[in-house]
Amino acid sequence: MKRNGIYFWIGAALFLAGAMLMTQVIGNQYPFFACYVILQFIVLAVAWSILGGYAGYVNFGTSAFFGVGVYTAVFLFKATGVPLAVQIAAAAAVGALMGFALGLLTLRMQGIFFSIATIAATIIIETAITNWRYVGGASGIQLQRPAVMAPFDNYVEMLFFVQAVMVVLAVAISRYIQNSWIGRGLQALKDDELAAECTGVPTLRLKLTACVISGALMCAAGAPAAMYLQYADPASAFNLNYSVSALAMSLIGGTAHWAGPVIGAILLGVTQQLLTVTISSEVNVLVLGVMLVLFVVAAPEGIIGLIRKVRSKRNEGEG
Fold first, then answer.
1. Helices (H), 192-258
2. Domain boundaries along the sequence of the chain
3. Cβ neighbours of residue 304 under 8 Å, at least 6 residues apart?
4. CB-CB contact of 260 with 53 (8 Å)
5. How far from 51 is each of 26, 99, 126, 149, CA to CA, in Å?
6. Are 37 and 172 spatial neighbours (Cβ–Cβ below 8 Å)?
7. Distance between terminal CA atoms of the chain?
8. What stretches of 66-183 adopt beta strand conformation (E)?
9. What is the pLDDT of residues 154-188, one digit of tens each?
């Protein structure tokens, strides 16, 4: 286990070093625009999997947390002009509080009732933001990027690297949860919540913990999005596609392991970016739906599940 941890952090360091090298070598900004979106979806998919994968509570409220992260950053930037790092930290704190509050209200529900409650929360929050004129209301708000900090040449490169750091943090947190008593407890309540409670597993506390961590990561992922687009409006920030994509990426990659959402997000994210460039961005939803149906029917445990089956069959053949 310790050796795996060392390998993970070596890989994370190499990943960040490669991301920094890209900002210094590549002059074209488009790769950074495209990679930013892919990295953003990795964070969202990993965050979704902490509650939806480990605990088995299907959350359709990803867009609510993402949108709150966007508008937390917009409010702070307009009111005080604080730097991006403070915006992200504040968005994570707001997301944690929001996750705790939403958890207290909804986590006693189960199955489809919990999922419906998260959709309702998204609609309520979006309506409130739409009527908040200070942050632009329904018409949205234009934002002017501040001066970029060294060693980056432009703001998009800096946003790309910041999102890469967030990917490492999100994956590290998810990996820790999976390998800790929290992950084992969440797996127990996912298998049979009543049986877990009877054996002394603190199910409500574990669900609240998962909801808080998941919400903090989702809001943090949304915080840089306003500066990425230099514009924010409720329809885009609270777009239901964020919820569907995060869910689909996690299920396609596999929710039983922390690497599953990462694999699913990279696969679908790269596919969507290629389709946007070659055909049309409108095709993305169709491809997302088709791939989700195929994996749910043919490989319900996702890519990670397929890999495990291949390995087990290979071991049986060698035996």
1. 193-198, 203-222, 225-229, 234-237, 240-253
2. 2-242
3. 253, 254, 256, 257, 259, 260, 263
4. yes
5. 37, 11, 22, 35
6. no
7. 26
8. 141-142
9. 889 999 999 999 999 999 999 999 988 898 999 88
